Amino acid sequence: MGKFSLDEFVNKTQQDDNENEYFELETERVLEVNLDGEVWSKMGAMISYIGDIKFERERVLEHGLGKMFKKALTGEGIQLMKANGKGRLYLADQGKKITIFDLKGESICVNGNDLLAFEPSIEWDIHLMRKMAGVMSGGLFNVTLQGKGKVAITTHFEPLTLLVKPGETVYTDPHATVAWSGNLKPEFKTDISFRTFIGRGSGESIQMAFSGEGFVIIQPFEEVYVSKES
């Protein structure tokens, strides 16, 4: 960032008190939530807060029995935290770049590890990538979000959006795939003739295949998830 006096550094990096949107990008890697009620976020994403805010881990039956079983099947799954109160909440995830979507009735599917926060007005559900079980370690699930409200996702570096057009299939690396439009249903393609030197356990090349009409968001980074075992 260069050289600064202390006053110069504080003036350049201090929070912006003039922003009043529910979700604001305080920086491209820090999300500010101007909270007056509730918000759901990824567990462990809180880095600071100002005001009267209470935090609560998602209870086992918080979102119903069906989601509980799906989360159990995914291992760690997506662990959520509920913040309740009034004040400013700052969220981040390992320095990843943050993008805010304002859903207006649309739906989007997000890799569970890349979901940072969403308004309680958003409906969501977990979907397992069953065909990937035993091939990839972790990251075998995605979260479908729909309705009206704000959703924040994270990416390593700048995201790229690929348009999926009728008659053209878009193939992506699952480790680099962040999100896609809710109407798309990805298939998985295994190419056993193409061996990789990056150390995937199966030695096979796995791609996600998107057909139809919509979009896919990818990142220029292969995010390999490690399953947490007790």
From TrEMBL:
Top-level taxon of origin: Bacteria
Biological source species: Lysinibacillus xylanilyticus
InterPro entries assigned: AIM24, AIM24_sf, Trp_RNA-bd_attenuator-like_dom
TM stretches of this protein: none
Protein name: AIM24 family protein
PANTHER family attached to this UniProt entry: ALTERED INHERITANCE OF MITOCHONDRIA PROTEIN 24, MITOCHONDRIAL
